[in-house]
Design a protein that fits this description.
Layout (H helix, E strand, L loop, with lengths): L1 E4 L6 H9 L4 E5 L7 H16 L4 H9 L7 H11 L3 H4 L1 E5 L8 H13 L3 E6 L8 H5 L4 E3 L1 H4 L3 H7 L5 H11 L3 H9 L11 H15 L2 H10 L5 E2 H8 L3 H11 L3 E4 L2 E3 L2 H10 L8 H13 L3 H10 L3 H17 L3 H13 L5 H13 L3 H14 L5 H16 L3 H14 L3 H15 L4 H13 L5 H16 L6 H10 L9 H17 L3 H13 L1
Parallel strand pairs: 1-4, 1-5, 2-3, 3-4
Antiparallel strand pairs: 6-8, 7-8
């Protein structure tokens, strides 16, 4: 375990890249989004998978099924370690900008669990020492820390960098900057790096940054302010935003020192440069609301949800943020990122945002956290305010029905499921509405239950999830309704080979549970035990 600890501008990321470049490694850049432990686990697993080709299906499914990932950190560490058992011994994990998530106890506990409970080799860059890194461990070399003093430039290094201005001015500037590499690096780009001796390092940085900024053409300045909003700047997104001028603008920004090539197709903006450019966003160079909308949409189309949120939040564009919630809430829910979604809606509301989209997103989160009354109220509110024809109106009724069912209020549940069927916009929405009705009617009212079942039979079954759910529907109708075992057993036996392809853990476990129960009732005990074992390891 190696930690590079120092303030922004001390070359931690650069040193880490140079040291790790010849070693097998997975590089994960931490952002504020990583404070959601589900986002951290999924992002780190995907990064490791990309460089090792190792899959993490069980871990991904656990994240989809969990209601409170913050309460399951230990299990997530175990699943992560099991998913990458061999890779952790031979591949370094690099966590860059660790301080961005230090407000999240769950996220920090996960990293601590990986470091203490697995054979992982970790290189970490941070502005602040992690809370779990104790002085005793550093003293006994259980953790190796390189701090700010060795990261700073000494007098000889500063003179070599600024040799074009002469020895004495270089020494003077190095002393004023206190060896701060970021200031000295910008000074090296400046035509006149001599400044008043009273300037402090932070002031020096802004002085040189402003000087370089003013030498750029207006079109480059405007482009830089836009790019500074985006956490990860790659060739694809620069082309999308800057169109035909992208290559020319990026080359000039690199020459001036505002952008730094990190790897093929990606440029980096130093955190201090980014903060400087964000301060410029209050000037005439700031992107318009329509431009922010376009950037957010471009990122959302590539499913770069966190980057899109960073742009909308950084630009103060509530319209873009609410539209992003509309586009992203279902993918985020599928990944177990409840904290992320709740944070997004909170930011939108704090800025005066009102929308049924926010109500529906909060209802989804409340439902998954077993708060049925809150979920039902929010979903009903969303359903009232979505206009007729909005595809999310049917979804709102469905969540209201699910929440009422969770709270054992069958009349309220059925009323909402029928409305969800009426306003369903997709086959999947219709399937869920009919499924909800089947569950509520079965064993109570045979005729409407049969109607719901027939409605499900008419829908396309294009995925393994669809086939398993239909087979489970026969078990609900015939077994719980007292009809018999023949039809569900036949349907489940035919569907069982597709269980390995199902990617919805709730659908899969419901099917396996129902199939095992049917086999037991038919006295096929050995087969029932095999299916039950499948369920426990699914």
């Amino acid at each position: 375990m190696i930690m590079l600890v120092g303030a922004a501008g001390y070359g931690k990321t650069t040193l880490a890249r140079q040291w790790i470049q010849d070693k097998p490694h997975a590089w994960y850049s931490i952002t504020s989004a990583s404070s959601d432990v589900a986002a951290l686990v999924l992002g780190l697993a995907q990064t490791l998978s990309d460089v090792t080709d190792q899959k993490f299906t069980v871990l991904r499914e656990r994240l989809r099924a969990t209601r409170e990932p913050e309460q399951e950190v230990g299990s997530l560490v175990d699943l992560f370690a099991a998913s990458f058992a061999n890779e952790l011994e031979r591949c370094w994990i690099v966590l860059d900008d660790y301080q961005a998530m230090t407000g999240s106890a769950a996220a920090e506990n996960f990293v601590e669990g990986i470091i203490r409970g697995t054979p992982a080799h970790v290189l970490l860059t941070t502005r602040r020492r992690p809370r779990w890194a104790h002085a005793r461990q550093i003293l006994y070399r259980e953790l190796y820390e390189i701090g700010q003093i060795p990261l700073a430039m000494n007098e000889e290094e500063a003179e070599a960098l600024l040799r074009h201005v002469g020895t004495e001015p270089a020494r003077g500037l190095a002393a004023l900057a206190d060896g701060w590499p970021a200031v000295l690096g910008l000074a090296a780009h400046s035509d006149d790096p001599t400044v008043a001796s009273t300037d402090l390092p932070a002031t020096l940085y802004d002085f040189f940054a402003e000087e370089l900024y003013q030498t750029a053409r207006p079109v480059v300045r405007q482009a830089l302010v836009k790019l500074a909003l985006i956490p990860t700047v790659d060739a694809e997104i620069t082309q999308e935003i800057l169109a035909n001028d992208a290559e020319e603008i990026v080359n000039e920004a690199v020459r001036l020192g505002f952008l730094v090539p990190a790897k093929p197709g990606i440029v980096e903006i130093h955190p201090l440069v980014r903060e400087f450019l964000k301060r410029r966003s209050t000037s005439f160079e700031a992107p318009s609301e329509d431009e922010v909308d376009r950037i957010v949409r471009a990122l959302a189309e590539k499913r770069r949800w966190d980057d899109a949120f960073a742009v909308a939040e950084g630009a103060g564009a509530n319209r873009s943020l609410i539209e992003l919630v509309r586009l992203a809430f279902r993918p985020l829910l599928a990944e177990g990122r409840l904290s992320t979604l709740r944070r997004w809606t909170a930011v939108a509301r704090e800025r005066g945002g009102t929308s049924p989209v926010l109500d529906l997103a909060d209802a989804e989160v409340a439902f998954r956290r077993n708060r049925d009354r809150e979920s039902a109220a929010l979903a009903a509110l969303a359903a009232r305010h979505f206009p007729v024809g909005d595809p999310l109106r049917g979804r709102s009724f469905y969540i209201a029905g699910q929440a009422a069912r969770l709270g054992d209020r069958p009349n309220e549940s059925l009323k909402n499921f029928r409305q969800a069927e009426k306003f369903a916009d997709t086959q999947e929405d219709l399937r869920e509405a009919l499924w909800g009705q089947l569950i509520e009617y079965c064993g109570a009212e045979a005729e409407p239950a049969e109607r719901a079942l027939q409605g499900l039979e008419k829908l396309d079954r294009s995925t393994a999830n669809d086939v398993l759910r239909m087979a489970t529907a026969y078990e609900v109708m015939d077994v719980r309704g007292g009809i018999g075992l023949a039809r569900p057993l036949d349907a489940m036996a035919a569907a069982h080979p597709l269980a390995a392809q199902a990617d919805d853990p709730l659908v899969l476990t419901a099917f396996l549970n129902a199939y095992s129960r049917c086999l037991s009732m038919a006295a096929y005990y050995d087969d029932a035990r095999v299916v039950a074992d499948e369920e426990t390891t699914a």
